[in-house]
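Tutorial sheet, problem 5. The four components below are modelled jointly, 1138 residues in total.
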Amino acid sequence: MRGSISVNHKDITRSVPEKRGISIVYQDQMLFPHLTVKDNIAFGLRAAKCAKQEIGRRITEISELLRIDHLLQRRPTTLSGGEKQKVALARALVTEPAVLLLDEPLSALDPHTRETMQQELAEIHRQLDVTIIHVTHDFEEAVALGDRVAVLNQGEIAQVGTPQDVLRHPASAFVADFALSRNVFTANAEHVSEGYASADIGGLTLMVATDIRGPVHLTVRPEDILLSLEPLHSSARNAFQGTVSEILERGSVLYVTVTVPPDFVCLITSHAREELGLQEGVRVWLHFKATAIHAF
Amino acid sequence: MRGSISVNHKDITRSVPEKRGISIVYQDQMLFPHLTVKDNIAFGLRAAKCAKQEIGRRITEISELLRIDHLLQRRPTTLSGGEKQKVALARALVTEPAVLLLDEPLSALDPHTRETMQQELAEIHRQLDVTIIHVTHDFEEAVALGDRVAVLNQGEIAQVGTPQDVLRHPASAFVADFALSRNVFTANAEHVSEGYASADIGGLTLMVATDIRGPVHLTVRPEDILLSLEPLHSSARNAFQGTVSEILERGSVLYVTVTVPPDFVCLITSHAREELGLQEGVRVWLHFKATAIHAF
Amino acid sequence: MRRTRTWVRFNTFGFVFLILALAMLVFILTPIIKTCFSSSPGTIWKTLLDDDVYLSILMTAFCGLLATMVGLVLGVPLAYLLARHDFCGKRLLESLIDVPIVIPHSAAGIALLFVFGKQQIFGQFFYEIGLRFVDTMAGVVVAMMFVSVPFLIDSTRDGFKSVDVRLEKVARSLGASPWRTFWRVSLPLTWRSVVSGSIMMWARAISEFGAILILAYHVPFFGEHPAVAPVLIFERFNNFGLDAARPIAVLVIVISLIAFVALRMLTNKEEGT
Amino acid sequence: MRRTRTWVRFNTFGFVFLILALAMLVFILTPIIKTCFSSSPGTIWKTLLDDDVYLSILMTAFCGLLATMVGLVLGVPLAYLLARHDFCGKRLLESLIDVPIVIPHSAAGIALLFVFGKQQIFGQFFYEIGLRFVDTMAGVVVAMMFVSVPFLIDSTRDGFKSVDVRLEKVARSLGASPWRTFWRVSLPLTWRSVVSGSIMMWARAISEFGAILILAYHVPFFGEHPAVAPVLIFERFNNFGLDAARPIAVLVIVISLIAFVALRMLTNKEEGT
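Model answer (structure tokens):
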């Protein structure tokens, strides 16, 4: 393997690790087990010979941002998975690295903690001016958090681009298979009533069963979207009319892309296609339930 | 803790393990790493001082039943997770134990292998006359494989009964929460065309997108079922009329039980309930797609 | 490319550590290597043909083997029980088992004399069945075993500990008796630890000097009265000086070095597969 | 209930193993315990006040400490490099480092004489800077270090191996230099292995007899010429018989036993937390 790595136009391929300006957060956190949370976070600052007051100030700052100020005196072994991951993030961020390298940071967490941490990461990225390289196997996570997404296949980059690029214009069959089976949207969730929110995605207002407010990512599984030629009076809270723009056969099922806009991908059987007479250009109605939308 | 354990009316509480007639299969298989697959399977027979020919015959029999005859000369470390689990099963079954104790045998396998193994286990249970105690966290697995299901809560049995009993008449809120969110059916899948099957569940014929033929278990997630007052002309291949028999509020969503028969549980929002005017006794239409049914 | 990287990463830290580590290596290896090459092969061969030397080495190796075998019969069960059972005071007991490694060797000899002497508990008991220890091969074996058996016990115990107890439970549930389970499952999976512990025990046994000097100086062996090799070396050195002791020392070092390194490499190799 | 179960499961296998294990325990523990209680506290106290004995024990402990300290400075870097780097012949090297444990102690003494003698490579080199080894405390320290340092190296190497190298990588990526990483991360996490290796090394050092007998018999120490304790015991035994050697043997065994068991229990205890 050959190549070089540059950070801020400086070749760091042969620099010693402590001069590279890259902080790592591993999947299993790698907190120093013999130090308290506070000393873990202070490690990089002490190595940089910061003044004591400066260290205290920056620890307070970062631990408030990540809401871990109540954990400072604890030992890493007493923390939960999500707490450990936040401490590892704090430890890496407090040194103000040029690049933050996250190696599958959320894959070891339980689903609920993972969703919360995704929001925290998005929040951190908004608030701090740091380049984050986030390695993940979770395509939705990549799309939700990334400004640019690189899809790797067997050690080679299959596609680089914005999440929407990758989702809507996959460069190869590999990327397509990876991306096609998802409907992912970014929106702002607004309060409707306890347990419900409305979310605007490019002119379309979705009804979502969630308690999250503010910026969210929404996904609908293609098999959860019902297609019909007429509008239906049903328990589905979301109904929109659109035009079939693409039909892809995948074995015995079909992926139908319907442009409302935006595009929705629906999974239907070939029987259903015949009965509805679906083909490109046909106008159809989409229906999906508020509970079928996953918000994070 | 006090108590006693009996197998075939014989108290074995104080028996040594080798006299109990109970074979164990662990989640991580515990194959003997220093023996070949064949010697692993032969272990129990040799301990019982079986004749050499008898041992050979029975190994051939069980390895053909489990389709592992091509693996006999391999070492356990070279096997995949599913293969290991089959060898562990063969090793336990070949001694013809009175009871086979499976300790979460499928939880370490990937989803695809897990489904195949579920079918294998069902097949084994049909063919061999052995009592199987199957410990699992997967409720669908328990319902799919069990003749009788015992739900344990904090070390105490919360309910014992047939899967249908537990599903339809949960004895406590704990069991209800555990069981209510599922629609599980047993059926015979018959060929319709490539990739599709029809399945008869108590008089109702479902259209399923699957390649499996013969006895299957089918599940439909409650959030994938659409309710309406009128029949819909849509891409949903399954549409049935039924009567709302029960409505349960769980936070901001509702679980609606519709008796067709059989009973289907549907997850809807309270908005949808209001709009459709749902209450017990109302006649409604159920719609769900052939691709939304999970078959195993 | 990997090599280049290593060089790029080279720094004061690596340099200082390398220097210190090399100093330690030179300190350990120079005496061994220099001694090995200080006598010509001819001299060593002639030394080996010396009846005293020949018999001494043979007896040392043989007694070491005997000690190791007795150690295996009694030590493996102890190691197994220590690995599988927890009881109050177990940690203290494990520390006490290691004590023979650390008490002065001459003190160990005196301690053994206290129980294996003719008038003492073990001595008297074994005297009844015709076994004497002072200045006999039995004494040599006992002294060797006392100072070296902790190596075998520790290694074997760690081996048994690393075998998942559920493998034994599976074997039992398949109808195997405790004996069958031990011979067919526990022991085969611990084999490597048992072998490397035995090598260590044997090597340590044939190196013992202090305890043997006190318990069994010269012992009857095939009609002669040789001393064990470490004692023989000391005798030659004391009576005739360094030059007389050298060839025997070389011979003994070469033999134990080859046996030890070869066996160690052999067992380590198996680890790879 | 647990106790009952253990009894129910009791069988021939457990019985035979228990008998064999107990035989081994009796064999190891009886000499130690019997020796400890064979002299009255009064006699031992009187022995301790004997100038020869007093100085000898003091010198032994002191030389053991010196050897351990030098061993730490040179051995820890070696252990670290062995744990962190792979190279061709590493396994052979690791075997060679353990060789001092297994070569006969008197042969080890002769091997050391071959490099630390006045005319020999190290001997000559150090002679220039005024350091002599034959019959000096430096010789005692060198002999002790040679036979005992492998214990420290092995234990420390295993300790470093058990520290995830990614912890060091994280420290480096946070801006810590290699030195800072070693002192603040690697060493604190290996501390227990280093301490228990040091205890083992010290205990083994003060027990050495054969190599010291050859390299440094009686050495100058505070105006006197004491021998190390193991040698003193042998001298008394040789010149005045068992009864004269006994109280010193008891004293030395008790001291090393207490030091060893206490320190071992202390480090094991930390393991629990």
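Marking note: Chain D touches chain B at residues 1, 8-9, 11 (CB under 8 Å). Full credit if you identified this.
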